[in-house]
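Extended Data, panel c. Modelled sequence:
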Amino acid sequence: MAPMATPPSAGPGPRGVLARYRRAILDRSADDLAGLYAVDAVHEFPFRFPGLPARYLGREEVRAGYTALWGASPARPEAVHEVAVHESTDPEVITVEQTVTGTVTTTGEPFEVPGLLVMRVRDGLLVHVRDYMDGLAVTGAMRR
């Protein structure tokens, strides 16, 4: 007897969640962003820089962390430029190369932050994100 196939996940797949993730970032909506995460999701920042923890554990830490981060930051993202989206042999995982650009409101200076996201989506929700953001670019933009 052949093994049963795994049923497809409910909800949007990784690319659909990525589009909603980017919209939440551009809107600076911690509530919309948190709504994309499973209750017990993990969002990690492997490249640390001052002001960010190593990870957020769970949807509510994502909400609280981004609320605090965006509330304290004069950086206003205006666009996300997709460099590439790499499909995985695991249908739950995509790797995203992108650059976020915007303006520092206190100086009027533009900023550009390249990054890499590794996203795992299950049942239409993020369950694990590894966010490799260029912390030096962020710090440099805030110092100008």
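Confidence is low (pLDDT under 50) at residues 1-7. This feature is highlighted in the accompanying rendering.
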